[in-house]
Write a structure and sequence with these properties.
Layout: H1 6-15, H2 17-20, E1 27-29, E2 38-44, H3 48-56, E3 64-70, E4 77-81, E5 84-88, H4 90-93, E6 96-101
Antiparallel strand pairs: 1-6, 2-3, 2-6, 3-4, 4-5
Length: 105
């Protein structure tokens, strides 16, 4: 959620702190998706190095991804991002949160 000024943030906080961070969509880590699922990256959790590496690979907020393959036993998840294929280790895929998109071609 973005605020245009401090007063707007303070007013929203007075109404209830729990409302400030509430998201309208349900977010899911990539590691929880199944093959052929499509999602839109919402946020990435992790240290600066991991986040920068993922950003460099094209995983930025708003980017659509499609799960191509999920390896068994917490192996990597292969995703299509902007015309490229990426293999994300389970730990990384668990920290990239997406909004699952329905009815996508």
């Amino acid at each position: 959620m973005q605020f245009s000024n401090c007063e707007e943030c303070l007013e929203r906080t007075r109404k209830g702190v729990e409302e400030v961070g509430r998201r309208e969509e349900n977010l899911t880590p990539i590691s929880s998706l199944k093959e052929h699922d499509i999602g839109k990256v919402s946020f990435i959790r992790g240290d600066r190095k991991i986040i920068q590496r993922l950003l460099d690979m094209g995983l930025i907020a708003g980017t659509k991804i499609r799960v191509l393959r999920v390896a068994p036993l917490n192996g990597p998840t292969e995703v299509a991002v902007r015309g490229s294929k990426l293999a994300l280790g389970h730990d990384i895929a668990s920290n990239v949160f997406v909004e699952v998109l329905k009815d996508q071609p």
